[in-house]
Amino acid sequence: MPKASCVLLIDKINKLFLSVSLKTDKTDFNLPSGKVEKSETFKPAAIREMKEETGLNIKEENLAIFQENIVKNYYVITFITNKWSGEIYTQEKGIVKWLPYIYLTKSKTWKNENSNLYIKLMEDEHYI
Question: DSSP code of 106?
Fold first, then answer.
């Protein structure tokens, strides 16, 4: 089964998460994510995708597993962190922006998966 990594990067002070639009639909915002390459494991893939899609740097030791599930035949691990460095910059076609947590429930493509992340995020005081 193919594998993918996602990152839920949160700004706890402002109660925002970092989102990236789909390349094919600039109005549909989701988490920075992508396939785990054959030579990678989940955390390095998450770090690489975050850098490629947003320009931001995250460290492996700051990533915690937040959720694991199957999405469209992919085994997906979503990591969470509130620590990053760098400035937002990307050469990819998506739009990168900070959105309020509630926007996790507004994804067109990943509505169920992201809504579940939102519920879990709201239930865990440690993260908010």
Answer: G
Q: State how far the Cα of 78 lies from the Cα of 66, in Å rounded to an integer.
A: 6
Place of tokens 């789909």: 22
- CA 27, CA 83: separation in Å to the nearest integer? 26
Tens of pLDDT along 37-92? 999 999 999 999 999 999 999 999 999 999 999 988 999 999 999 999 999 998 88
Burial 88-124 (b: 16+ CB within 10 A, else e): eebeeebebeeeebebbebbeebeebbebbbebbeee
How does strand 3-11 pair with strand 16-21?
A: antiparallel
